[in-house]
Design goal:
A alpha/beta (about 375); B mainly alpha (about 300); C mainly alpha (about 350); B: mainly alpha; ABC transporter involved in vitamin B12 uptake, BtuC; 2 strands; about 75% helix; C: about 350 residues; mainly alpha; two-stranded antiparallel sheet; two-stranded antiparallel ribbon; about 5% strand
């Protein structure tokens, strides 16, 4: 029974500690649930850095309409159960105006219904199509749709006369969503997927997988995965002497991966937002100033390369900030303002939201890029 | 399956297998002198790779590797002295939990010292695309480096344990700790030495495999699980058997990809382990008599 | 029977009620969300405590059983049977009330298994698996015993991560509320928070009463004798293998029930619930609470999970558990609540009849 007493004492102590009064009001609260650490940290870490940078920047300018932005970032470590707990905290305790994130599709799906019921705005940084299909009134997302990336790839293949392909995907939410779209859309373009392989995300050597692809006699390989597998597959393909074109997903968006793959990365073709090729974009491109500013701000502040993932958080934050500027801090009005955002130039493309489209991007958000002499460049035919 | 494909799978399998074996050897060295399974062994591999990558920014590759191995050995000694050395007759359960805790701790420290990014050393010879073609089978030169280093490690270890005084002392501690102590051998120092040795081997392995597998703060865990699997498959404590078991498991995994989705590869190798555990806990190559005498 | 052993249960009940009352009075009702979640984790943890502390068996695979419970019930309650409606098996089930038709948030109609039948099936699967692997696993000793459940956990993780029906890396979402009785359901809806808090803690209290009776019965004495000296217990005619197996199966069943409940509460489950780190975390909590100490495990289980779920540890979540694990094992392998300092502290409260804790 002494333990029961200790239990009681500890619980009381706990409440003494946690029931501290909350800070003064008159700020606009933005919540964020991101996988800053854990298996999806390659998404969450740049996203969280980007948000911190933007909040600092906007507050230095005096905030939005004279109100400072208070950013509350929660590290979910990529776990849906944490995302659920944090989402409830942000909604009820911190009473945030909107939540940015989560970074992964699994977490976003875990809290989608919750946000819808609580009538709180969610701007997801995850890619999966199901997030905005069916459309939930309060749920938006900023990354380009996987299906557009797939279509871009297939359009390129048609041009190159490729019709028999092999698909490899990592066992992450990203790989899964990509593989589904690849399989779904292939018939539209008359493309045959001869073989489709899923491998472990932390696989250290994929020779056996690429050997299987080689044996299937494909004309091209599409790989849909994250680091490090996307570099490993490029290396292993070249090592076993496969010379067919390798297409990667829009997740291949960081020059570091090219460096990691070394010469093997040469000639990889992939769809991506324009952040990676901002230097070679024509001057008249409307995205160029936005991209150049984000890239130089991020890189000078954090001493690392900007990635397209951080860009998703940039878009989410800026769309939200703009909506608050026009509509104030009433949730319903902000939601309507986001939904009626047109022609917003972000890092991922030009956003045109509507009641049916809570992503707002079209296929033009992507360009086909390739790797030449260790650098990203636009694919020109 | 054509002969060419068959050999390509075989080469891939041997590559996996050798990597697993080097980790398993690290497990065995500590197990032999202490009876402890050091679950943080995978973290030594990670530390070696990460340190070498960082150092490679300041010094040439061979120097970076040497320093990284030395640094990791020092960390190995530190871990043993701080966490293990002063425990009096710890139970197996306690040691398992402590080393698991250590592995988590080292991993998390690495996350905050470095970051979440993936790193790699450059290829020792050639580049990522160079390969040596033998009868239609392509082999990366780095694979030869891995095989070579593993062979050297096994030869040196065998020599060390059978021909040097220190190696004999370590073996004596493993056979009978009290008797060894009575003969004037410092059992405690031998335990520290075994941690230093296995940390060094792990770090060296981490450097050699990093161009192939890359290294990240959490890459130790997966390697440790595979290495432990191999160590048990071969029979705990037997380094030669670990190499054989490692290659066997690697080849099995490699060929399993041919018949079933790759995603189930890990489930397969662990299932094999469980079957072996249930049916023949002394391992594939271990002797049942010796096994039954061990006190764990 | 010694009636004093019910006093802690009464205290726990009082604490549960007063926590709800205090939070409600202070307008901080939202704490109940994480307290509910940690209550479900505590179900697993007290079960594991029985296995580790009383039967002396470590299991680094209990997240696997949790995931089996959660995933099976999530799958069965979200998998739409409408296309199979005409099949004989499905129509038979519909007649017997085993199915449930519902509408999702976006107006789609679904016909799925009723959560009750899904729950029973999920627990049954977990119990069956535990019985099948339990026999050979528990014959092992030392490192091999530690490795076997760990391997089992890895296999479960690999399977849920590789199976499209289980949502692969995304896990399963849109899991409906679990209607226990009309008007009483496990659901994450904010309006049902208080109700769910009590459902969860009533479950915990019931479990604690059950386990406490168990450890004070013949079975409990047998279990302790296994922990102390297995050979001697065997020689005295205690069928140690049977007792160990039953404990293993029982703890697996609790893990599965915890999985089912939390999955309905969260409205989904992801592969992270099956990961090795989760299993390690459960073992850490039992170790901190004191191996053979149900109350210690319960206190630590609810506290640490509460802190973790509220995000107090930030990016150091795993590091905190790693550190706690090492520190406890180095300095107080019998657990934190067994340390002399706590003993002295609680001695201040003690009124004499606390011998039952002295095991």
């Amino acid at each position: 029974m002494k333990f029961a007493k200790v239990f009681a004492a500890v619980l009381l102590l706990l409440f003494a500690v946690t029931l501290t009064p909350s800070a003064a009001e008159d700020t606009i609260k933005f919540g964020a649930i991101l996988s800053v650490t854990g298996p999806a940290s390659f998404l969450g870490a740049p996203e969280s850095k980007t948000l911190e940078m933007l909040a600092e920047e906007i507050n230095a300018k005096g905030g939005i309409k004279g109100k400072k932005v208070e950013l509350i970032i929660k590290d979910s470590m990529g776990k849906p159960e944490n995302a659920v707990s944090f989402a409830k905290q942000l909604i009820e305790e911190d009473k945030v105006l909107a939540i940015i994130g989560p970074s992964t599709s699994g977490e976003t799906m875990a809290i989608k219904n919750l946000l819808e019921e609580a009538k709180t705005i969610l701007l997801s940084c995850a890619a999966a199509e199901v997030i905005v299909d069916p459309v939930a009134k309060y749920v938006f997302k900023t990354p380009q749709k996987d299906s557009f990336a797939v279509r871009k790839i297939y359009m390129e293949m048609k041009k190159m006369g490729i019709s028999k392909i092999g698909v490899a995907a990592g066992n992450t939410g990203f790989g899964k969503a990509g593989k589904e779209q690849l399989e779904k859309i292939a018939p539209e373009f008359g493309i045959d997927i001869l073989i489709s392989e899923v491998y472990d995300k932390s696989a250290t050597d994929l020779t056996a997988v690429v050997t299987k692809l080689k044996a299937a006699d494909v004309q091209a390989v599409v790989n849909w995965s994250i680091v490090p597998a996307q570099s490993i597959i490029a290396k292993n393909m070249r090592q076993i002497g496969m010379t067919v074109p390798l297409f990667q997903s829009h997740g291949f968006g960081n020059i570091k991966y090219v460096e990691a793959a070394g010469p093997a990365a040469e000639g990889i073709i992939f769809p991506a937002g324009r952040l990676l090729v901002v230097n070679v974009l024509p001057e008249e491109n409307s995205q160029k100033p936005v991209l150049a500013k984000y890239k130089s701000d991020y890189e000078s502040k954090f001493q690392e390369d900007a990635s397209t993932f951080g860009g998703h958080a940039y878009d989410a934050f800026m769309i939200l900030a703009k909506a608050v500027e026009t509509a104030g801090t009433d949730t319903e009005k902000v939601r309507d303002a986001i939904e009626s955002t047109k022609g917003f130039v972000g890092t991922g493309g030009v956003f045109n939201f509507s009641a049916e489209d809570h992503n707002g991007l079209d296929i033009n958000a992507f360009d086909m890029l390739t790797v030449k002499d260790g650098k990203f460049t636009l694919l020109t035919n | 399956m054509s002969a060419e494909l068959f050999f390509q799978y075989l080469v891939a399998g041997v590559t996996y297998g050798i990597i697993y074996s080097i980790v398993a050897i690290g497990f065995n060295i500590i197990y032999n002198t202490t009876g402890i399974i050091n679950f943080a062994q995978g973290e030594f591999v990670m530390l070696g790779g990460m340190t070498a990558v960082t150092l490679n920014g300041f010094m040439p590759l061979p120097a970076a590797i040497v320093v990284a191995v030395l640094v990791t050995m020092a960390i190995g000694a530190l871990v043993e002295i701080v966490f293990i050395r002063w425990l009096v007759n710890p139970s197996v359960l306690r040691m398992i939990i402590i080393t698991i805790g250590l592995s988590i701790l080292i991993r998390e420290i690495a996350l905050h010292v470095w970051d979440e990014k993936v790193r790699a050393l450059p290829y020792f010879t050639g580049t990522s695309v160079s390969s040596i073609e033998v009868g239609g089978v392509h082999i990366s030169p780095q694979v030869l480096w891995v095989i070579g280093v593993c062979t050297v490690i096994v030869i040196i270890l065998n020599f060390f344990f059978s021909c040097t005084s220190m190696g004999r002392q370590m073996r004596a501690c493993s056979d009978n700790r009290n008797a060894a102590r009575l003969c004037g051998i410092s059992a405690r120092n031998m335990v520290t030495l075994s941690f230093v040795l296995s940390a060094g081997i792990g770090a060296l392995a981490g450097c050699v495999v990093s161009p192939i597998t890359y290294v990240q703060y959490d890459s130790g865990t997966g390697l440790a699980i595979k290495g432990f699997t191999v160590a048990i498959l071969g029979g705990l404590g037997n380094s030669m058997a670990a190499v054989a078991a490692g290659i066997l498991l690697g080849v099995l995994e490699s060929f399993s990809i041919w018949v079933m989705p790759t995603a189930f590869k890990d489930a397969l190798s662990i299932s094999i382990l469980l079957i072996i555990l249930f049916a023949r806990p002394s391992g594939l190559f271990g002797s049942r008599e010796v096994f039954s005498m061990k006190e764990f | 029977m010694d009636r004093s052993k019910y006093i802690p249960v009464l205290v726990l009940t009082a604490v549960v009620i007063s926590v709800q009352a205090i939070t409600a009075a202070m307008g901080k009702g939202f704490y109940l969300t994480q307290l509910t979640m940690s209550a479900y984790y505590s179900l697993l943890i007290v079960g594991l405590c029985l296995l580790m502390g009383y039967a002396g068996q470590i299991s680094l695979g209990h997240a696997g059983f949790f995931a089996i419970g959660g995933y099976i019930s999530a799958f069965l309650t979200t998998f739409d049977l409408t296309p199979y409606q005409t099949g004989r098996l499905v129509s038979f089930r519909a007649d017997t009330g085993l199915l449930q038709a519902r509408q999702d948030l976006y107006g789609g109609h679904l016909l799925t298994l009723h959560p009750w039948s899904a729950c029973l099936l999920a627990v049954l699967v977990a119990v069956t698996i535990a019985s099948v692997i339990g026999g050979p696993v528990l014959k092992l000793k030392g490192h091999y015993l530690a490795m076997a459940p760990l391997g089992f956990g890895i296999i479960v993780y690999a399977i849920v991560l590789a199976t499209p029906l289980f949502g692969e890396a995304d896990g399963l979402s849109d899991v409906p509320p679990f209607e226990l009785l009309p008007g009483l359901s496990i659901s994450g809806k904010l309006s049902l928070r208080v109700q769910n808090y009590y459902i969860a803690w009533v479950l915990v209290i019931a479990t604690i009463i059950l386990l406490q009776n168990l450890v004070h019965s013949r079975v409990g004495r047998a279990l302790r004798s296994i922990h102390g000296a297995e050979d001697a217990a065997n020689a005295m005619g205690v069928d140690t293998a049977q007792y160990k197996l039953k404990t293993f199966v029982l703890s697996a069943a609790f893990a599965a029930i915890a999985g089912v409940c939390l999955t309905h509460y969260n409205g989904g489950i992801g592969p992270s619930e099956a990961s090795i780190m989760k299993s390690v975390r459960y073992v850490a909590i039992v170790a901190i609470g004191g191996m053979a100490n149900l109350w210690g495990a319960l206190v630590m289980g609810s506290l640490l999970n509460f802190f973790s779920l509220r995000g107090y540890f930030g990016s150091f979540d795993d590091a905190v558990f790693g550190t706690i694990l090492i520190v406890i094992m180095l300095f107080s392998p019998e657990g934190l609540l067994r340390m002399e300092i706590v003993r002295a502290l609680s001695g201040l409260f003690r009124r004499g009849s606390a011998e039952e804790e002295a095991s």
